[in-house]
Amino acid sequence: MKLLVDFFPIILFFISYHQANFLVENTFIGALLDPTKSELITATIVATGVAIVASFVQVSYHWIQTRKFEKMHLFSLALITVLGGLTIMFGNPDFVKWKPTVLNWLFAAVFFISFFIGEKTLVERAMGNQIELPAAIWNRLNIAWVVFFLISGAANLYVAFFYALELDEKTRMDTWVDFKLFGLMGLTLVFIILQAIYLTRHISEEDEAIEETIEAEKHAHEDK
Question: What's the number of CA atoms in the CB half-sphere (13 Å) around residue 107?
Fold first, then answer.
């Protein structure tokens, strides 16, 4: 459920981009747009506007449910509002294309800085109340998140601006919109699964070590 909420604006961006003609012809949105704009620019503006509204809904929904604001949602809202606003204002898709990269690299920086601020990394602060792991394992997980965010940001940048340059602009934009949903979501799901496997292995090792310690103490007590 949380993953669905996190990807809610991206999903609506994807749907509204590919259904922009329907929205323009059958809703009030058409009256707000310049009819002289190309199909590509119109679809991008529609999708970006929907994503901005969806981001506000996302933040509001989380606050109503928890009475707290999630920083990731706030960062995303700020970026889509600024970069998306520039895309709508100037009719230039390049601004909104930068949003996933800036957001991912911002998260990479935050996770990396957590090594030097406080006694725990950001991963341990988020998950430390649920499981117990050695400090070295927490550090590896934190590094893994830094690398993941860096790779995700670079992948978005590549698909948005450097992939298949021989294709027309509309096809390249379609490809990026599809990648933004399926590619980045797929990368996230794969990373989460790999992290779960890694955690399961080390949790099992930790449990075995605890059991061995208890057994050793038991034998020591019996020897006395």
Answer: 25
